[in-house]
Amino acid sequence: xxxxxxxxxxxxxxxxxxxxxxxxxxxxxxxxxxxxxxxxxxxxxxxxxxxxxxxxxxxxxxxxxxxxxxxxxxxxxxxxxxxxxxxxxxxxxxxxxxxxxxxxxxxxxxxxxxxxxxxxxxxxxxxxxxxxxxxxxxxxxxxxxxxxxxxxxxxxxxxxxxxxxxxxxxxxxxxxxxxxxxxxxxxxxxxxxxxxxxxxxxxxxxxxxxxxxxxxxxxxxxxxxxxxxxxxxxxxxxxxxxxxxxxxxxxxxxxxxxxxxxxxxxxxxxxxxxxxxxxxxxxxxxxxxxxxxxxxxxxxxxxxxxxxxxxxxxxxxxxxxxxxxxxxxxxxxxxxxxxxxxxxxxxxxxxxxxxxxxxxxxxxxxxxxxxxxxxxxxxxxxxxxxxxxxxxxxxxxxxxxxxxxxxxxxxxxxxxxxxxxxxxxxxxxxxxxxxxxxxxxxxxxxxxxxxxxx
Length: 454
Known about the structure:
By secondary structure, the chain is an all-alpha fold.
C-alpha cells in the first residue's frame, strides 16, 4: 500500500513540475485515448477489408484459375472452401490467444501467415499448391475478427460496441467491392497471379502497421477511458465454465444453425460460384461479372447500418430482423432456381444487392443476439464459438455445389444452366432451413420501460 501512495505522490509531483493539475492531466489522457483508438480501429478495419477480399475473390478469378491450373469444378470448390476450414476451426483459439497473448501479437503473427499464403497462391504451379496457399490465407485472416472484437471492448465503451461492429462490417463490404470489379480489372491487366502477389504485399504492410500502431488496451499507453472500469467488478467466469454455459444453451445452437445455413448461401454464391454462373449462363466477361458481383458489396455496406437501425429502432428486437433476412434470402435463391437462365442483367444486379444486404449483413444482428444470450464476461467465448458456424457453412457447401456442377459439364470447365439450377436448389433448402431457425429462436434484446435498449 505504501508503494502505491508513494507512486501517486511522485505522479502528482510530476504533474506540478509541468504546470498541470491532476484534472488537466486526466482530461489530456482521455483526449489522447479517444483520438488514438480511432487510429487503431482504422488499421484493424483495413485488415478486415483484406479478410473479405480473400474470402470472396475466387468468384471473379475462378474461370481463369480453372484454365490456368487445369482443374475442374470439384477441385476448384475445394480450393475455394480451403479458406473456410482453418478459419472456422481457429475461432475458439482466436479468443484464447487474444486474451492470453494479446490481440496485437496475435493479429501481427497471423497476418504474416496470410501474406505467405497469398504469395504461394500467386506463384502456385498447380492446384494442390494453390489449395495449400489458400489454407494458409484462411489460417492467417482467421485471427483478425475475434481479436478486433477484443480491442473494441477494451478501447470503446459498451454502448459504442454495436455501432463499431456495424462500421467494421461495412469495411468488410469495401473488401467485397474490391474483390469484384477492381480485381477483375487488375486481373485483366496483369493476370490473376500478379494480383495475388500484389495483395500479398499489401498484407505484409498491414502486418507491419498492426505491430507499430495497435495496442491491446489504453493502459498499455498509460491511459484510461471512463466507463470501462465497471466491467472489472463483475464476477470472473473461467474458460471451462464459460464454454459449458455456451454449449449447454439450446438457444445458442438455434442461432448456430441460422448462421450455418444463412451464410452457406452467401459464401457459396458470392464467394465462388456466382462468377462462373454469370460467365457460363449469361456469357459475361470478367469485367461484366465483376460489375454485377460488386452489388453484393454495395448491399453489404448499406445493409449493416440499415439492419442495426431496423433492429434497434423499428422492431426493437433481433428476431424479426433475422426472420426478414431469411425470408428475403429464400426468395432470392428461389428466383435463381426457377429463372436460372432467364434473368435480366438488372435483375441479377438486384439479386446480388439484396443478397449482400440480407444474406450477409444480417450477421451483425446475429452477433448481437449471441452476445445478449450470455453474461458480458463470456461474450468473447460466445462470439468466437458462434463465428465458427458461418464459415463451416461455406466450407461444406462450396465443394458440394462444385461436385453437382461437375456432373453437368458441357465442355471443359463449362457447366450448363441445368447444373446451376440443381446447385441453387441446395441453396434454396439452406435458406428455408435458416428461416426455420430464425422462427424458433429466442428474442434476446431487452427493452427498457421507455422503449430504449437496455
